[in-house]
Amino acid sequence: MTTTTSAAVEVRSLRRRYGSFEAVRGVSFDVRRGELFALLGTNGAGKTTTMDMVAGFGRPDAGNVRVLGRDPYSERRVLRPRLGIMLQEGGLPPDLTVSESAAMWAGTLTDPRPVVEALDLVDLRHREHVRVRQLSGGERRRLDLALAVMGRPAVLLLDEPTTGLDPENRRNAWQMVRALLADGVTVLMTTHYLNEAQELADRLAIMHRGEVVTAGSTAEVVAQHPARIIFGLPHGVDLPALPGLRDPYDGEHGPGRVTLRTDDLQDTLTELLGWARRHDIELAGLEARPASLEEAFLAVAESEEVPA
Amino acid sequence: MTTMTTTTTVTRGNTARIRAVGLAELKLFARNRTAMFSAFAIPLILAGAISTSGMADSDDLATSVAVVTSLLGYVLLAAVYYNLVTTYVARREELVLKRLRAGELSDATIITGIAAPMVAVAVAQMIVFVVAGAILVGLPAPVNVPLMVFGAVGGVIVFVLLAAVSAVFTRTAESAQVTTLPVLLACLIGSMIYPMMDDAPGVVVALLRALPLTPVVDLLRLGWLGTTGESAPVGFAGTFADALLPAGILIAWIVAGLWAVRRTFLWEPRR
């Protein structure tokens, strides 16, 4: 293979409209070989449309997509044996059993894993004679995941892979994805679960209304956002000056609750707690939230509520 | 060693892939009572009604052949066309088509693989009806078997393509009962009565001849009897000349069908 582009997936100024609705409006990002890149975003942000273009289901209205150096739409035939695609909804006939579905899928692939091996990967062996119709949502999701990795793909596209999984199965799915990453597989994933992205992603982009609004390594994106300290303050009491605050506390707060945004959680919190002890003040319902993807995500969602 | 793996990989060609999809479809077909009924029961009931009505017992062998070839046409409509419209729509709405497209299969392989079991059922029924007709009713030996095979195979292809196109206009598997009516009625009435319409205006006959089922039935009758009814039978060689027009019409339908499927086929539910 002479495809030596550094990125496994390259998306450049991608645009796609459905009728009068422009679902994706100029999206660009790269997924490097062997990393996990997460696409986050509110509902209707354009994540699935972007994934569809990367998978080669449709041709972009403008812009460019390359997967392993090839056009996923016009070179679908050459590219697909190296891609594993997990759609948002499974699309398996409800009246086939688990093993029948897996055998059918294996029969369409160039170099499939054995059916039992694939089912073992997602712990579905004991359900092999059950019809897809009778599976729980989480079991269906696991079957989808098994089929997506059945062809031993170099690039894996996962659209909300763990929706409907219980916490234990979600952990198992994460373990499986980590094992694939360790084998050198490149993963592009969308998810609604911010902790999932924080656990797994090397880099990520947050989409909103068809555009990428924040992108970078997970640590970078998190670091752009402050930690929060939230508590209740007795009436008539004012806070002292505190170190590390994003915006100085101006003395006004809602009915009993104060939210401080700080870039130095430990420092701010230490000062705050020392002051409260010295003055014997109760900080009711005290919460300290570290900078997290959730903060980053909320900042994106909120930025839209109040247009600048 | 490496060579061997490469060879086995390459030999997983389209046939193996069509078989994988077709096998899954066959299981689904066997688990779907409605589809089983319209594929097996209705043609059998029809055949039973015909054989007990005495229509096929007439001394006029041409009438008997006309009855049997009409039955073959019915198989194409019920087992191939109607069942495949509902199957394509059901698979589209269940997102199965999109899922299959997420793998290595080409579009043509998916459409063919899903059609495979119905086509097998239809071909088997046609063989049964022809053999049963020959043994039970004592029909004559066919004049030109290749022509009959060509008509049957062409007919299967046309109705698979028509089913794929009709699926575009069909929102749910249930609404196929309505959306398939135009093709079903036109073919049932038009193609079947046309040989008996000696004194109809030329335009009407021309229109009826252009329907997708008519050239199929024409070719079957021509191959079997050496005539489509209105003229004296001709021999093996002579049937080819008479077959040109129906064969041309059939091929035109196939070309138009391929074009329409490529342009319009829907792989996932409309947004």
Automatic annotation (TrEMBL), chain A:
Domain of life: Bacteria
Pfam families in the record: ABC_tran (PF00005)
Topology of the protein relative to the lipid bilayer: Peripheral membrane protein
InterPro entries: AAA+_ATPase (IPR003593), ABC_transporter-like_ATP-bd (IPR003439), ABC_transporter-like_CS (IPR017871), ABC_transporter_ATP-binding (IPR050763), P-loop_NTPase (IPR027417)
Membrane spanning residue stretches: none
Keyword rRNA processing: no
CDD domains hit by this protein: ABC_DR_subfamily_A
Sorted UniProt keywords: Antibiotic resistance, ATP-binding, Nucleotide-binding, Transport
Subcellular location: Cell membrane
GO BP annotation list: response to antibiotic
Domain ABC transporter: 9-234
A Gene Ontology molecular function term of the record: ATP binding
Signal peptide: none
A GO cellular component annotation in the UniProt record: plasma membrane
Record keyword Chloroplast present: no
Similarity annotation: Belongs to the ABC transporter superfamily.
Protein name: ABC-2 type transport system ATP-binding protein
From TrEMBL, chain B:
Ranges where the ABC-2 type transporter transmembrane domain occurs: 50-260
Highest taxon of the lineage: Bacteria
Pfam families assigned to the protein according to its UniProt record, in alphabetical order: ABC2_membrane_3
Keywords linked to the UniProt accession: Membrane, Transmembrane, Transmembrane helix
Higher taxonomy: Bacteria, Bacillati, Actinomycetota, Actinomycetes, Micromonosporales
Database matches in InterPro entries: ABC-2_transporter, ABC2_TM
GO molecular function terms attached to this record: ABC-type transporter activity
Transmembrane feature ranges: 35-55, 61-84, 105-135, 147-169, 181-197, 243-261
Membrane topology reported for the UniProt record: Multi-pass membrane protein
Name by which UniProt lists this protein: ABC-2 type transport system permease protein
Subcellular location: Membrane
Native source organism of the sequence: Actinoplanes lutulentus
One Gene Ontology cellular component annotation held by this UniProt entry: membrane
